[in-house]
Amino acid sequence: MNIIVNGGTRGIGKEIVLILAGDNKNRLLVTGRTGKALKNLAKGAKNKNISTCTIDLSNFDTQQKSFLEAVTSVMKNVDILINTAGSLAVKGFMDFSNEKAREMMETNFFGPASVIRTLRPLMKKGAHIVNISSMGGYQGSAKYKGLSYYSASKAAISCMSECLAVEFSGTGITVNCLALGAVQTEMFEKAFPGNQAPVSAMEMAEFIADFAINGHRFFNGKVLPVAIGNP
């Protein structure tokens, strides 16, 4: 399968890449902001099936052409897109500058949306788009101080997933969104210092990797909460 993991150099994204790259039938293209981390990730792949592309989603418009060129140089079509890239700033709503707020929305919402729009022409019947959201952006879930813009950006990508399933109806392309709960990652530790999550990054990655491959058989246009812990 031809798979793109958008944001795969650390945390859950990195673990997803390692799992999927373990199958030598898969060809992966992984994005991230740090070229060195991407290089090390590709070098460590036993099956030599990881290609990389350095992009910053907060400024994706200027990198769209080079991203598409990187994709088409290694694959003619895209079977799976996993949008796991994200940015988090823990700060009171009144302490956010417009610049910082827009940067987070670009990274967590506008950037992934642009990636989907760029790759859509390469997707055929059976393709699956998996957007990674958060319980912070899940309607009716507990909310926490300092996470207003982060939660709002994740709510946006959740809603967009539902909308795109309708937009792409009749094409055979499915779109789903996983709203993750507490997972032991750097981002979780930053948001909730001193807390221990009940799920490891590897455990969550195993679930997401399997869902990306098989979830389209059972779900489309769904925002699914994946959480056993609060926060």
Structural overview:
There is one protein chain. Helix content is 39%, strand content 16%. It contains 7 helices and 7 strands, in the order βαβαβαβαβαβααβ. It has helices at 11-21, 35-43, 64-72, 98-119, 148-167, 186-191, 201-214, and strands at 2-6, 27-32, 50-54, 80-83, 128-134, 174-180, 223-226. It has a 7-stranded parallel sheet, with helices on both faces. The longest helix is centred in the middle third of the chain and has 22 residues, at 98-119.
Summarize this structure briefly.
By secondary structure, the chain is of the alpha/beta class.
Keywords:
39% helix; single chain; 7-stranded parallel beta sheet; alpha/beta; 7 helices; 231 residues
Topology:
Elements: E1 2-6, H1 11-21, E2 27-32, H2 35-43, E3 50-54, H3 64-72, E4 80-83, H4 98-119, E5 128-134, H5 148-167, E6 174-180, H6 186-191, H7 201-214, E7 223-226
Parallel strand pairs: 1-2, 1-4, 2-3, 4-5, 5-6, 6-7
Give the assembly state of these chains: single chain
Got a strand count? Answer: 7
> Looking at the structure, what is the overall shape?
globular
Q: Assess the beta-strand content as a share of residues.
A: 15-25%
**How many separate helices?**
7
Contiguous low-pLDDT stretches (5 residues minimum) are none
Category from helices, strands and their pairing: alpha/beta
Main β-sheet description = 7 strands, parallel
